[in-house]
Write a structure and sequence with these properties.
Order of helices and strands: HEHEEHEHHEHHEHEEHEHEHEHEEEE
Family: Belongs to the glutamate 5-kinase family.
CATH class of the largest domain: Alpha Beta
Number of domains: 2
EC number: 2.7.2.11
Catalytic activity: L-glutamate + ATP = L-glutamyl 5-phosphate + ADP
Domain PUA: 280-359
CATH architecture of the largest domain: 3-Layer(aba) Sandwich
Pathway: Amino-acid biosynthesis; L-proline biosynthesis; L-glutamate 5-semialdehyde from L-glutamate: step 1/2
Protein backbone atom coordinates (compact mmCIF):
# COMPACT_ATOMS: atom_id res chain seq x y z
CA UNK A 1 0.00 0.00 0.00
CA UNK A 2 1.28 3.48 -0.90
CA UNK A 3 2.49 5.70 1.93
CA UNK A 4 0.29 8.58 0.73
CA UNK A 5 -2.89 7.24 -0.87
CA UNK A 6 -4.42 10.71 -1.11
CA UNK A 7 -1.70 11.71 -3.55
CA UNK A 8 -1.34 8.42 -5.42
CA UNK A 9 -5.11 8.16 -5.87
CA UNK A 10 -5.66 11.73 -7.02
CA UNK A 11 -7.52 11.60 -10.31
CA UNK A 12 -6.76 15.24 -11.09
CA UNK A 13 -3.52 16.78 -9.88
CA UNK A 14 -1.98 20.23 -10.22
CA UNK A 15 1.82 20.24 -10.51
CA UNK A 16 3.76 23.47 -10.08
CA UNK A 17 7.39 23.74 -11.15
CA UNK A 18 9.66 26.70 -10.40
CA UNK A 19 12.10 28.58 -12.62
CA UNK A 20 15.10 27.16 -10.79
CA UNK A 21 14.09 23.66 -11.92
CA UNK A 22 13.82 24.55 -15.61
CA UNK A 23 16.37 27.28 -16.29
CA UNK A 24 19.85 28.50 -15.53
CA UNK A 25 20.88 32.14 -15.41
CA UNK A 26 23.69 31.86 -18.00
CA UNK A 27 21.92 29.54 -20.43
CA UNK A 28 18.21 30.24 -20.02
CA UNK A 29 15.83 27.35 -20.59
CA UNK A 30 17.28 23.86 -20.04
CA UNK A 31 15.42 21.50 -22.44
CA UNK A 32 16.82 18.39 -20.75
CA UNK A 33 15.33 19.33 -17.37
CA UNK A 34 12.03 20.26 -18.95
CA UNK A 35 11.87 17.02 -20.95
CA UNK A 36 12.58 14.94 -17.85
CA UNK A 37 9.59 16.54 -16.11
CA UNK A 38 7.38 16.05 -19.16
CA UNK A 39 8.23 12.34 -19.20
CA UNK A 40 7.08 12.05 -15.58
CA UNK A 41 3.81 13.89 -16.24
CA UNK A 42 3.17 11.85 -19.41
CA UNK A 43 3.51 8.67 -17.33
CA UNK A 44 0.93 10.04 -14.89
CA UNK A 45 -1.40 10.75 -17.79
CA UNK A 46 -0.89 7.21 -19.06
CA UNK A 47 -2.35 6.00 -15.76
CA UNK A 48 -5.62 7.71 -16.65
CA UNK A 49 -5.06 10.67 -14.34
CA UNK A 50 -5.53 14.32 -15.34
CA UNK A 51 -2.72 16.86 -14.96
CA UNK A 52 -2.68 20.67 -14.84
CA UNK A 53 0.83 22.11 -15.00
CA UNK A 54 1.61 25.51 -13.45
CA UNK A 55 5.00 26.42 -14.86
CA UNK A 56 7.26 29.31 -14.05
CA UNK A 57 10.26 30.14 -16.20
CA UNK A 58 9.02 32.52 -18.90
CA UNK A 59 11.07 35.52 -17.82
CA UNK A 60 14.15 33.46 -17.05
CA UNK A 61 13.87 31.70 -20.42
CA UNK A 62 13.86 35.05 -22.22
CA UNK A 63 16.96 36.55 -20.60
CA UNK A 64 19.66 34.74 -22.57
CA UNK A 65 18.07 35.22 -26.03
CA UNK A 66 17.82 38.96 -25.33
CA UNK A 67 21.35 39.16 -23.96
CA UNK A 68 20.12 40.35 -20.57
CA UNK A 69 22.36 39.44 -17.66
CA UNK A 70 20.83 38.99 -14.24
CA UNK A 71 17.37 39.80 -13.05
CA UNK A 72 15.80 42.80 -14.84
CA UNK A 73 15.50 45.82 -12.59
CA UNK A 74 12.74 47.52 -14.55
CA UNK A 75 9.25 46.35 -15.45
CA UNK A 76 9.58 46.90 -19.20
CA UNK A 77 12.64 44.64 -19.50
CA UNK A 78 10.97 41.96 -17.40
CA UNK A 79 7.90 42.12 -19.63
CA UNK A 80 10.07 41.93 -22.75
CA UNK A 81 11.87 38.89 -21.38
CA UNK A 82 8.53 37.26 -20.60
CA UNK A 83 7.33 37.94 -24.13
CA UNK A 84 10.31 36.12 -25.65
CA UNK A 85 10.58 33.46 -22.99
CA UNK A 86 6.91 32.46 -22.90
CA UNK A 87 7.04 31.47 -26.57
CA UNK A 88 10.16 29.38 -26.05
CA UNK A 89 8.85 27.80 -22.87
CA UNK A 90 5.47 26.70 -24.22
CA UNK A 91 6.85 25.57 -27.60
CA UNK A 92 9.41 23.40 -25.82
CA UNK A 93 6.63 21.94 -23.67
CA UNK A 94 4.41 21.38 -26.71
CA UNK A 95 7.18 19.51 -28.59
CA UNK A 96 8.07 17.40 -25.55
CA UNK A 97 4.46 16.42 -24.80
CA UNK A 98 3.76 15.79 -28.49
CA UNK A 99 6.22 12.89 -28.40
CA UNK A 100 3.81 11.27 -25.95
CA UNK A 101 0.76 12.12 -28.07
CA UNK A 102 -0.43 14.76 -25.59
CA UNK A 103 -1.88 18.11 -26.70
CA UNK A 104 -1.20 21.08 -24.46
CA UNK A 105 -3.14 24.29 -24.01
CA UNK A 106 -1.66 27.54 -22.74
CA UNK A 107 -3.58 29.44 -20.04
CA UNK A 108 -2.10 32.83 -19.15
CA UNK A 109 -3.64 34.50 -16.11
CA UNK A 110 -3.30 37.92 -14.54
CA UNK A 111 -4.29 38.90 -11.02
CA UNK A 112 -7.50 40.33 -12.45
CA UNK A 113 -8.47 36.93 -13.83
CA UNK A 114 -8.66 35.53 -10.31
CA UNK A 115 -9.68 38.60 -8.30
CA UNK A 116 -12.74 39.37 -10.44
CA UNK A 117 -15.50 36.85 -9.84
CA UNK A 118 -16.64 36.65 -13.46
CA UNK A 119 -13.10 36.11 -14.71
CA UNK A 120 -12.56 33.49 -12.00
CA UNK A 121 -15.56 31.53 -13.27
CA UNK A 122 -14.32 31.84 -16.84
CA UNK A 123 -10.91 30.47 -15.84
CA UNK A 124 -12.60 27.49 -14.21
CA UNK A 125 -14.69 26.80 -17.32
CA UNK A 126 -11.65 27.02 -19.60
CA UNK A 127 -9.57 24.62 -17.51
CA UNK A 128 -12.46 22.19 -17.23
CA UNK A 129 -13.08 22.21 -20.96
CA UNK A 130 -9.42 21.66 -21.80
CA UNK A 131 -9.31 18.66 -19.48
CA UNK A 132 -12.57 17.27 -20.86
CA UNK A 133 -11.10 17.48 -24.37
CA UNK A 134 -8.04 15.55 -23.27
CA UNK A 135 -5.58 18.46 -23.33
CA UNK A 136 -3.04 19.23 -20.62
CA UNK A 137 -3.34 22.87 -19.51
CA UNK A 138 -0.10 24.76 -18.89
CA UNK A 139 -0.77 27.75 -16.65
CA UNK A 140 1.46 30.74 -16.01
CA UNK A 141 1.06 34.31 -14.88
CA UNK A 142 0.75 36.63 -17.86
CA UNK A 143 3.96 38.48 -17.05
CA UNK A 144 4.04 40.19 -20.45
CA UNK A 145 1.13 42.49 -19.60
CA UNK A 146 1.10 42.38 -15.80
CA UNK A 147 1.37 45.86 -14.32
CA UNK A 148 1.99 44.80 -10.73
CA UNK A 149 5.23 43.43 -9.35
CA UNK A 150 6.65 40.66 -11.55
CA UNK A 151 8.37 37.89 -9.63
CA UNK A 152 10.55 35.22 -11.23
CA UNK A 153 8.73 31.93 -10.86
CA UNK A 154 6.86 32.83 -7.68
CA UNK A 155 3.75 31.01 -8.87
CA UNK A 156 3.17 29.05 -5.65
CA UNK A 157 0.09 31.02 -4.62
CA UNK A 158 -1.20 30.88 -8.20
CA UNK A 159 -0.85 27.08 -8.10
CA UNK A 160 -2.87 26.89 -4.88
CA UNK A 161 -5.64 28.99 -6.45
CA UNK A 162 -5.54 26.91 -9.64
CA UNK A 163 -5.86 23.72 -7.56
CA UNK A 164 -9.23 24.98 -6.36
CA UNK A 165 -10.29 26.51 -9.67
CA UNK A 166 -9.60 23.20 -11.41
CA UNK A 167 -11.23 21.14 -8.62
CA UNK A 168 -7.98 19.19 -8.23
CA UNK A 169 -7.60 16.24 -5.90
CA UNK A 170 -3.95 17.01 -5.06
CA UNK A 171 -1.25 19.65 -5.49
CA UNK A 172 2.48 19.00 -5.89
CA UNK A 173 4.87 21.97 -5.53
CA UNK A 174 8.26 21.29 -7.12
CA UNK A 175 11.49 23.26 -6.76
CA UNK A 176 15.18 22.62 -6.08
CA UNK A 177 14.56 21.91 -2.37
CA UNK A 178 13.67 18.42 -1.07
CA UNK A 179 10.94 19.70 1.22
CA UNK A 180 10.36 21.75 4.36
CA UNK A 181 13.19 21.50 6.92
CA UNK A 182 13.14 22.46 10.58
CA UNK A 183 16.26 24.54 9.94
CA UNK A 184 18.48 25.68 7.09
CA UNK A 185 20.30 22.56 5.78
CA UNK A 186 22.90 24.80 4.13
CA UNK A 187 24.12 26.21 7.44
CA UNK A 188 23.83 23.29 9.84
CA UNK A 189 21.98 20.13 10.85
CA UNK A 190 18.35 20.14 9.77
CA UNK A 191 15.59 17.54 9.69
CA UNK A 192 13.12 17.16 6.85
CA UNK A 193 9.55 17.63 8.06
CA UNK A 194 7.62 14.59 6.84
CA UNK A 195 4.06 15.66 7.60
CA UNK A 196 2.22 18.88 8.46
CA UNK A 197 -1.33 18.96 9.76
CA UNK A 198 -1.59 22.72 10.37
CA UNK A 199 0.35 25.96 10.97
CA UNK A 200 1.11 24.98 14.58
CA UNK A 201 3.37 22.20 13.29
CA UNK A 202 5.70 24.82 11.79
CA UNK A 203 5.35 27.50 14.46
CA UNK A 204 8.99 27.15 15.50
CA UNK A 205 10.36 26.88 11.96
CA UNK A 206 12.05 29.81 10.24
CA UNK A 207 11.23 29.64 6.54
CA UNK A 208 13.79 30.81 4.02
CA UNK A 209 13.23 33.19 1.14
CA UNK A 210 16.79 33.34 -0.24
CA UNK A 211 17.39 32.81 -3.94
CA UNK A 212 19.63 29.87 -4.69
CA UNK A 213 20.59 30.51 -8.30
CA UNK A 214 19.26 33.91 -9.25
CA UNK A 215 16.36 32.86 -11.49
CA UNK A 216 13.61 32.25 -8.93
CA UNK A 217 12.09 34.22 -6.08
CA UNK A 218 9.78 31.61 -4.61
CA UNK A 219 11.38 30.76 -1.28
CA UNK A 220 10.07 28.10 1.09
CA UNK A 221 7.84 30.66 2.83
CA UNK A 222 5.77 31.11 -0.35
CA UNK A 223 5.46 27.36 -0.82
CA UNK A 224 4.29 26.83 2.75
CA UNK A 225 1.76 29.65 2.43
CA UNK A 226 0.44 28.11 -0.81
CA UNK A 227 0.36 24.66 0.79
CA UNK A 228 -1.77 25.96 3.67
CA UNK A 229 -4.16 27.69 1.28
CA UNK A 230 -4.71 24.46 -0.65
CA UNK A 231 -4.72 22.07 2.30
CA UNK A 232 -7.07 24.37 4.22
CA UNK A 233 -9.47 23.98 1.27
CA UNK A 234 -9.34 20.19 1.42
CA UNK A 235 -6.53 19.52 -1.08
CA UNK A 236 -3.50 17.45 0.03
CA UNK A 237 -0.16 19.00 -0.92
CA UNK A 238 3.38 17.68 -1.33
CA UNK A 239 6.35 20.05 -1.35
CA UNK A 240 9.47 18.43 -2.79
CA UNK A 241 12.25 18.72 -5.37
CA UNK A 242 11.70 18.29 -9.10
CA UNK A 243 13.88 15.13 -9.37
CA UNK A 244 11.48 13.48 -6.92
CA UNK A 245 8.37 14.36 -8.93
CA UNK A 246 7.66 10.78 -10.03
CA UNK A 247 7.99 9.43 -6.50
CA UNK A 248 5.82 12.21 -5.08
CA UNK A 249 3.05 11.63 -7.62
CA UNK A 250 3.18 7.90 -6.92
CA UNK A 251 2.46 8.61 -3.27
CA UNK A 252 5.91 7.67 -2.00
CA UNK A 253 7.20 9.21 1.21
CA UNK A 254 9.27 12.04 -0.23
CA UNK A 255 9.24 15.73 0.55
CA UNK A 256 6.74 17.21 3.00
CA UNK A 257 3.07 16.27 2.98
CA UNK A 258 0.51 18.90 4.01
CA UNK A 259 -2.60 16.99 4.96
CA UNK A 260 -6.05 18.44 4.24
CA UNK A 261 -7.14 20.47 7.26
CA UNK A 262 -10.53 21.65 6.12
CA UNK A 263 -13.46 20.88 3.87
CA UNK A 264 -13.45 21.99 0.27
CA UNK A 265 -15.36 25.30 0.25
CA UNK A 266 -17.68 26.50 -2.46
CA UNK A 267 -16.12 28.38 -5.34
CA UNK A 268 -17.55 31.65 -4.05
CA UNK A 269 -16.27 31.14 -0.50
CA UNK A 270 -12.79 30.25 -1.71
CA UNK A 271 -12.71 33.18 -4.10
CA UNK A 272 -13.80 35.58 -1.36
CA UNK A 273 -11.17 34.36 1.10
CA UNK A 274 -8.12 33.90 -1.09
CA UNK A 275 -8.60 35.44 -4.52
CA UNK A 276 -10.80 38.51 -4.19
CA UNK A 277 -9.31 41.98 -3.97
CA UNK A 278 -11.15 44.16 -1.41
CA UNK A 279 -12.35 47.46 -2.84
CA UNK A 280 -12.99 49.05 0.55
CA UNK A 281 -13.51 48.57 4.28
CA UNK A 282 -16.47 48.69 6.63
CA UNK A 283 -15.64 49.61 10.24
CA UNK A 284 -17.66 47.65 12.81
CA UNK A 285 -18.48 48.22 16.47
CA UNK A 286 -17.87 45.50 19.06
CA UNK A 287 -21.43 44.21 18.90
CA UNK A 288 -21.28 43.73 15.15
CA UNK A 289 -17.92 41.95 15.44
CA UNK A 290 -19.41 39.47 17.92
CA UNK A 291 -22.49 38.95 15.77
CA UNK A 292 -20.44 38.26 12.66
CA UNK A 293 -17.69 36.19 14.29
CA UNK A 294 -19.62 34.23 16.95
CA UNK A 295 -23.14 33.94 15.52
CA UNK A 296 -22.30 33.98 11.79
CA UNK A 297 -24.87 36.76 11.45
CA UNK A 298 -25.33 39.10 8.51
CA UNK A 299 -23.95 42.62 8.87
CA UNK A 300 -26.58 45.30 9.42
CA UNK A 301 -26.22 49.06 9.11
CA UNK A 302 -26.66 49.51 12.87
CA UNK A 303 -23.30 47.89 13.60
CA UNK A 304 -21.23 49.94 11.12
CA UNK A 305 -19.33 52.99 12.37
CA UNK A 306 -17.47 54.02 9.25
CA UNK A 307 -16.81 53.42 5.54
CA UNK A 308 -13.48 53.53 3.72
CA UNK A 309 -12.98 53.21 -0.04
CA UNK A 310 -14.85 53.80 -3.27
CA UNK A 311 -16.79 50.64 -4.09
CA UNK A 312 -19.95 49.59 -5.84
CA UNK A 313 -22.67 47.17 -4.80
CA UNK A 314 -21.53 43.54 -5.10
CA UNK A 315 -17.84 44.49 -4.69
CA UNK A 316 -15.77 42.61 -2.09
CA UNK A 317 -14.97 44.59 1.08
CA UNK A 318 -13.23 43.89 4.37
CA UNK A 319 -15.10 44.00 7.67
CA UNK A 320 -12.81 45.53 10.31
CA UNK A 321 -13.23 45.65 14.08
CA UNK A 322 -12.46 48.61 16.39
CA UNK A 323 -8.94 47.24 16.98
CA UNK A 324 -8.14 47.28 13.24
CA UNK A 325 -8.29 43.48 12.88
CA UNK A 326 -9.95 42.15 9.75
CA UNK A 327 -12.90 40.04 10.87
CA UNK A 328 -14.41 38.95 7.57
CA UNK A 329 -14.61 39.61 3.87
CA UNK A 330 -17.85 39.82 1.94
CA UNK A 331 -19.83 41.24 -0.95
CA UNK A 332 -21.42 44.54 -0.02
CA UNK A 333 -25.03 45.24 -1.02
CA UNK A 334 -24.66 49.02 -1.37
CA UNK A 335 -22.44 51.54 -3.12
CA UNK A 336 -20.01 53.44 -0.89
CA UNK A 337 -21.94 56.68 -1.46
CA UNK A 338 -25.17 55.13 -0.13
CA UNK A 339 -23.82 53.90 3.19
CA UNK A 340 -22.95 57.05 5.21
CA UNK A 341 -26.62 57.93 5.70
CA UNK A 342 -27.39 54.41 6.96
CA UNK A 343 -24.65 53.97 9.55
CA UNK A 344 -25.72 53.20 13.09
CA UNK A 345 -29.42 53.13 12.24
CA UNK A 346 -31.74 50.25 13.14
CA UNK A 347 -33.22 48.37 10.18
CA UNK A 348 -36.91 49.26 10.99
CA UNK A 349 -35.95 52.96 10.97
CA UNK A 350 -34.63 52.84 7.42
CA UNK A 351 -36.59 53.46 4.23
CA UNK A 352 -37.87 50.17 2.76
CA UNK A 353 -35.33 50.10 -0.08
CA UNK A 354 -32.49 50.17 2.47
CA UNK A 355 -33.71 47.49 4.87
CA UNK A 356 -31.68 44.64 3.35
CA UNK A 357 -28.45 43.47 4.99
CA UNK A 358 -25.29 45.43 4.17
CA UNK A 359 -23.39 42.13 3.83
CA UNK A 360 -25.46 38.94 3.89
CA UNK A 361 -24.05 35.97 5.80
CA UNK A 362 -24.15 33.86 2.60
CA UNK A 363 -21.88 36.41 0.90
CA UNK A 364 -19.30 36.50 3.72
CA UNK A 365 -16.31 34.48 4.94
CA UNK A 366 -14.50 34.86 8.25
CA UNK A 367 -10.78 35.54 8.01
CA UNK A 368 -7.92 35.67 10.48
CA UNK A 369 -6.12 38.71 11.73
CA UNK A 370 -3.74 40.44 9.29
CA UNK A 371 -0.45 38.58 9.19
CA UNK A 372 3.02 40.05 8.95
CA UNK A 373 5.12 39.40 5.85
CA UNK A 374 6.85 36.03 5.96
CA UNK A 375 4.55 34.64 8.67
CA UNK A 376 2.37 31.60 8.22
CA UNK A 377 -1.27 32.16 7.27
CA UNK A 378 -3.63 32.31 10.21
Amino acid sequence: MTARPGIAGAGRVVVKVGSSSLTTLPGGLDPARLTALVDVLAAVRAQGREVVLVSSGAIAAGLAPLGVEGRPRDLATAQAAASVGQLRLVQTYADAFDRHGITVGQVLLTADDLTRRGHYRNARQTLERLLTLGALPIVNENDTVATEEIRFGDNDRLAALVAHVAAADALVLLSDVDGVYDGDPRTGPAQLVDRVTGPADLAAVTLGTARRNGVGTGGMATKVEAAFIASGAGVPVVVTSTPQAAAALAGERVGTLFEPSGRRPSGRQFWLRYASRPRGRLLLDDGAVRAVRERSASLLAAGITGVDGDFLADDPVELVGPDGAVVARGLVAYDARELPGLLGRRTPDLDPEYRREVVHRDEMVLVGRPRAAGRLPG
